[in-house]
Design a protein that fits this description.
single chain; binds 3-methyl-2-oxobutanoic acid; binds zinc ion; leucine biosynthesis
Length: 387
């Protein structure tokens, strides 16, 4: 089994979600929960960005004991120094240095030539290495960079001392086939590929972040970057809980394992959603309200006979108390009878047939039939009998 590490950037890239702003104590609370969830590395912030971010990274470095704590830095000495200062008390500090390598970013944003970018990588990765044991380098906008130049940039960073290379799909532009091929290209052209941690970093602009991250793993990546609930700028980042569980549920296919404690999934998701103020869509895989909810009669009947008929994830595995079988117009007699028994009603066959008919009539008029409706239904039936 190949070991996959998870790098959580909810507190850095995730905080780039418009409207999200974590204070230091919120960041520390989330960081501690990420540690409990089994995350291998936490990107705590961008220390040079503000005094608040610096203090939050410092506080997390002091609060977290087992997990690597990471600070982001541009290719600039001042950024690296500030990250070093913020991380000085971390048990396992790591720096994450980045610079863009796509033509559009180099020309229109950085106003730098290719040669200048390579020189900057060489100089700043070496400087970072003089201060940190673990140096990560990211060629920003890697998936829109010219492949041969990207290889040159990555090789330059490795030669200067980077032991972790992250390949960002900064604008969520790639697809699983292409992203997999890119990792494969790097694998075949970097002589000591296996000594380096290669990492995926995907954005979800075209809804492919999870699939792209999995494609990277299939092609040599041993680390996945992402956020809890997929929070992040624009359409967000890879949702860590999705990749982690996909690897687990399809171990037969991926042959991978991780350090994630799956039972902490829901608690972690709830905390990030509550503190960030970003709600989780009800249909969100793994942690959405409806992820273990079965509405149609055929599905409800199957789940009551054997949950595996329609559930590939046991809710308790990810810390969700139970599945649910909401009663609506598509529900069948099996689910109805089960619910009535749960509510304490032992109805005869004739009473059950009559109640079920009333239930169906009501369900046709309402989106969902509630427990109160069910009590009222039986009560109404009893009154009619008495009359
Ligand atoms: O998406 C991106 O390119 C980033 C970098 C800073 C790694 O978040
Ligand atoms: Zn990003």
């Amino acid at each position: 089994m190949k070991k996959i590490q998870f790098f959580d950037t909810s507190l850095r890239d995730g905080e780039q979600t418009p409207g999200v702003n974590f204070n230091t104590s919120e960041k520390v609370r989330i960081a501690k929960q990420l540690e409990a969830y089994g995350i291998d590395a936490i990107e705590a912030g961008f220390p040079i960005a503000s005094q608040g971010d610096f203090e939050a990274v410092k506080a997390i470095a002091e609060a977290v004991s087992k997990t690597t704590v990471v600070g982001l830095a541009r290719c600039a000495k001042a950024d690296i120094d500030r990250a070093h200062e913020a991380l000085q008390h971390a048990n396992y500090p790591q720096i994450h240095v980045f610079i863009a390598t796509s033509e559009i970013h180099m020309k229109d944003k950085l106003n730098m030539t290719r040669e200048e970018v390579l020189q900057s990588i060489k100089k700043h990765v070496a400087y970072a290495k003089s201060k940190f044991d673990k140096v990560q380098f990211s060629p920003e906008d890697a998936t829109r960079s010219e492949k041969e130049f990207l290889l040159q940039a990555v090789q330059t960073a490795i030669d200067a001392g980077a032991s972790i290379i992250n390949i960002p799909d900064t604008v969520g532009y790639t697809n699983p086939t292409e992203y997999g091929q890119l990792f494969n290209y790097l694998k075949t052209h970097i002589p000591n590929f296996d000594d380096i941690i290669f990492s995926s970093h995907c954005h979800n602009d075209l809804g492919m972040a999870t699939a792209n991250s999995l494609a990277a793993i299939e092609n040599g990546a041993t680390r996945v970057e992402g956020t809890i609930n997929g929070i992040g700028e624009r359409a967000g980042n890879t949702a860590i809980e999705e990749v982690a569980l996909a690897l687990y549920v399809r171990k037969d296919f991926y042959q991978c394992e991780s350090n994630i404690f799956f039972e902490e999934t829901k608690r972690t998701s709830d905390l990030v959603s509550r503190i960030s103020g970003v709600p989780v869509p009800i249909t969100k895989p793994i942690i959405g309200l409806n992820a273990y909810s079965h509405e149609s009669g055929i599905h409800q009947d199957g789940v009551l006979k054997n949950p595996n008929t329609y559930e590939i994830i046991t809710p308790s595995l990810v810390g969700v108390a139970t599945n649910s079988l909401p009663l609506g117009k598509l529900s069948g007699k099996h689910a109805f009878k089960t619910r009535m028994n749960e509510l304490g009603y032992q109805l005869s066959e004739t009473e059950m047939t009559e109640s079920f008919k009333r239930f169906k009539d009501l369900a046709d008029k309402k989106k969902q039939v509630t427990v109160d409706d069910l009590h009222a239904l039986v009560l109404g039936q009893a009154h009619e009998k008495a009359d």
